[in-house]
Structure formats: C-alpha cells, structure tokens
Amino acid sequence: MRVSLLLVSVMFVVSCGPKTHELKGGRAPAWANRAPGGWKCDLDGKSGFCSMGMVSGVRHDAAMRRTAAAERARAGLQRLFDTYSASLFRSYQAATTEFRDASEEQHVEQALKTFSAGHLSGVEMRDYWENDSGDAFALAFLSLDDFKAALDKMGELSAKAREVIKANADKMFQELREEEAKQEVK
Q1: Range ranked top by mean pLDDT from 94-98, 144-148, 150-154, 168-172
Q2: The pLDDT value given to residue 29
Q3: Sign of the four-CA dihedral 174, 165, 10, 39
Q4: Three-class secondary structure assignment of 40-64
Q5: DSSP secondary structure letter of residue 75
Q6: What is the pTM of this model?
Q7: Which of 83, 85, 91 is nearest to 110 (CA)?
Q8: 153, 121 in Cβ contact below 8 A?
Q9: Alpha-carbon gap, residue 165 to 176, rounded angstroms
Q10: Which of 40, 44, 18 is nearest to 138 (CA)?
Q11: Are 49 and 40 in contact (CB under 8 A)?
C-alpha cells in the first residue's frame, strides 16, 4: 500500500511538473556552467535552492540521459542538507645528505569518502539542456517554502528545532539579498 501511494505521488508530480526546455547545442544556460551540487537561488520570484546535475557518455538513450542528469541534480540538493564526510591525509618526507650525495623522497596520499541520504519533498526539475557533444544537464529547484513545509512534516525533529531551522533559512536568504544589494550599489 505504501509503495503504491508513493508511486502514484511520483507519477502525479512528474505529470504536473513544469515542462522542460530542451535546447540542443548553442549557448549554455548560466546554471549549466555551475559546479555540480547546490546553491541558493531565486527562480520565478521564489527563493530556494538549485542544483545542477550532468551526465556524459550516454549517446543512444535520451531517456537515460535525462534521468541520470535529473537524479544527479536531486542528489546535489540532498548533499546541501546532509552529508557525512570522512577524510584521511597522510604525508611522508625524508631527506638524506651524505657529503655530495643527496637523497630525497616524498609520498602523499589522500582518501575521501562522502555519503548522503535523506528525503526531500517538493524538488522540481526546472530546466534541461544538452550540448553538441551529447552531455546532458538538468536544473533542480526546491523552493524555500516547500523546504520549510517539509520540515513541519518531519517527526524526528522537535518543534523548537524545526522553528530554528526555518528561521535560519529565512535569515540566510535575507542576508544574501542584503549582500547582493550592496554589490549593486557599488
């Protein structure tokens, strides 16, 4: 029953979602030149979070290209809110000098592992673009209002924690607008 309800919900969101604009080649939209992951943005007068997903190398299956780019954009949004990261860095250096002969060695290693999992409601695919090489780009958007509404539905958070998170989200966007206004004045 739960899976059926989820499937119906997904089908409804997909069928009622905004139409994508497929452009083949030409000049890339500005969002397609952003680094993968998420950022604060304003779309159609709504404040929220955007993420760009990209896939390359899928030449003969347009549906797979679109889906892969869209899922990577959704994953970028999730990484904005919750990511576990573990890092290991090791470095070794040695220098030996014996009269005229010198020996130096160095070894540097870095390992990084990240993991992100969570549930985001209200994510919309807002745009899609392909370049002439067949690389696909998708733009995902989560409005600040939808984000705050999803927080209200989270049972694991206390009411106080939800209010603090919502207030901080509003404050973050207000600070961003003030900083942008300062830049426009200069």
Answers
A1: 144-148
A2: 92
A3: positive
A4: EEEECCEEEEEEEEEECCCCCCHHH
A5: H
A6: 0.59
A7: 91
A8: yes
A9: 17
A10: 18
A11: yes
CA distance 18 to 29: 17
The alpha helices in the chain, defined as continuous H runs, are: 2-16, 62-81, 144-153, 159-185
Can you read off the two tokens belonging to residue 80?
Answer: 């904005």
For residue 12 the two structure tokens come to: 């409804």
Task: Look up residue 158 and give its amino acid.
Answer: S
Q: What is the spatial distance between Cα 129 and Cα 163, in angstroms, rounded to a whole number?
A: 37
CA distances from 110 to 79, 113, 142, 159 (A): 21, 10, 34, 41
Q: Which amino acid is at 35?
A: A
Q: Please state, rounded to an integer, the average pLDDT across all residues of the chain.
A: 75
